[in-house]
Amino acid sequence: MSDPKNKRDDQSLRETAVRQLEEGLHAVPPPSETREALQHELSVHQIELELQNEELRHTVLELRQLHEKYLGLYDFAPVGYFTLDQSGTIRQANLRAGRLLGVERSRLLGRRLLQFTAPESNTTLAALLPRLLVSEDGLVTELRLQRADGSVFPVRLEGQAYSSGESLIAVTDITTEKAAQDELLRLNENLERRVVERTARIRELSDELRTVMLAVAEDLMDSLHRVASFVEVLRHDVSTVPVTPAQRFAPVFRSVERMEELARALLEYSRASSTRVRLVSLDLNRVFSEVEKDLQPSMEGRNVKLTRDPLPTVTADIAMMQQMFLNLLENALKFTADREVARIHVGADETETEFILRFEDNGVGFNNRHRDKLFQVFKRLHPESAFPGVGIGLAIVRRACTRFGGRVWAEGRVGEGATFFVAWPKHPTVLE
Asked: What's this model's pTM, rounded to 2 decimal places?
């Protein structure tokens, strides 16, 4: 059955041909005989064919231009395109596809896409292709391709099957996207790790504060109990041995002095825990020199060899770092008091993330089995009668160091001296 539209187009062409023929034969009268009528008909038909050819040329030109635009879009698309037959063989590929794989486009044709898939993704692609041929909506997956130089990169693969049995595969390089995802995961893991570490530090400090409060309460209660007991004795005056007022009140004075020492120690510990700090670039050689001046009264009359290696510049709070140096060096001076020559040395090492400071002495040392008690509040490894003090100095060092994300520990041998270590982070974070 003929198409009415074609009839209208043919009629239009014929009318146009007749009109052009008449316009070109102004002096010729209308044909009246059969021969002239036939000639007229042939002329009209010839002009009609020329018009059809002209339209056909325009159509071919438009199709060529559209084809060129299609090729341009196809070749220079930001994703790689592969046309595969039912066996997965590459029949067509755009320029981007060749660049992704590091192979000239002409060398891709006739080869299977599986040849350019990373070994760990072969199974994924082999299972995808048969499913693609029977899918109406297409399929999307992620896998890894392998370039000609052996390098592997992640891609997102989107496929659509044609009715001819072939399929179009669009491949997008997602290296940057995957890198961003990995970086986000790394940041999340790092954040989670920091939260865990910070929570652990807070819990540790909370436990330590509880221990401090209990220790202070016990010591204060003991001193107050002594005062109360002695006052009770005075009140009843039950003493049978005559004593001087100085002798009678000496225990009271000692108990009061003990309470004052504990209060001062508690105040120092509190300052180390709560004082506002300001991180600056700090030359530890200058810190050593300033602390050495403060220690001069303690070294008078003694033969003390206080030395140091070149010390690093760190990021720290000035007052807090000076307090740590002072406490560690005072501790070394205290426990070398019975040495003919006291040797105290400060050294430093460096790792990728920390500076390791060493405070070495040739003092009485300690048993390594009890070294964990060294940095606990009011814990002592030696009798107070031999080495006076309330046992707060090293606890302050530990508290200050922990507050900045650092670490402290010690090693020693009885009678052979001790070494105290401070691991100070290169990028400290302050725990308020």
From this structure: 0.47
